Amino acid sequence: MRIVVQEPPFDFGAEAEAFASGRHDMGAVVTFTGVVRDFGNGGLDAMEIEHYPGMTQKALEGIAAEAVSRWSLGDVLVIHRYGRMEPGEKIMMVATAAPHRKDAFEAAEYLMDYLKSRAPFWKKEHATTGETNWVAAKDEDEDALTRW
Amino acid sequence: MDVLYFAWVRERIGLPKETVTTDAETVADLVTELRAREDRYDLAFSDLSALRVAVDQELTDFDASIKGAREVAFFPPMTGG
Question: CB of B63 within 8 A of CB of B32?
């Protein structure tokens, strides 16, 4: 299990390759990457992500440990950035390795659902107009937790 | 204890962290004390349903005890991922 909280960009290809390599008992590797999405009209200048140093790492470790206890997993990787990012930049990634794909897929979805609502990150949009907006949590994100 | 604020709570109160001396027994008691201080606190804590709280870096609720706690943090619902 590897949990990384960092400001600089990460190399998604290299991370995915390293995570998937050298395993002989894991038949499935699932990766997910979150990307900064523009409003659709080129109006987003940047996304700023604030976090709670001290709590963030522990919260992510707790979520990953819960995933490991619920599914048959060989390994988990979570990388989550903070700071200022432009549209198209990768914000975060999760990877799961399991003997079979169902566990890998489900655990990755579980990790994403919990990362969205239970890891102490807050997103602020900076529009090209100069306006800023804290992204509000969605009810559907909170509701997504109930299925687990 | 240290009281921390994040995201719009930090902006509304105007600081990220402060040291508070209190006899409050629960998070809710602490909130009542903070709201009585100044309008900016009163405004930030006016709708508790829009806030989350962590005591010693663990998510909890407003009924939680803060006896012996070192750190209480207030913030809006999280938007990770």
Answer: no
pLDDT digits (tens, 9 = 90+) for B5-55: 999 999 999 999 999 999 999 999 999 999 999 999 999 999 999 999 999
What domain range is A56 assigned to?
2-136
pTM for this structure? 0.95
Chain A nearest C-alpha distance from B46 (Å): 17
The residue whose two tokens read 């998510």 is: B59
End-to-end Cα spacing for chain A: 21
- Closest chain A C-alpha to B78 CA, distance in angstroms: 5
Candidate from B4, B59, B80 with C-beta closest to A115: B80
CATH for A24: 3.90.1170.40
Tell me the Cα Rg of chain B. 12
Cα(A147)–Cα(A14) distance, integer angstroms: 33
Asked whether the beta carbons of residue B79 and residue A52 sit closer than 8 angstroms, the reply is no
Q: Is residue A146 part of a domain?
A: no
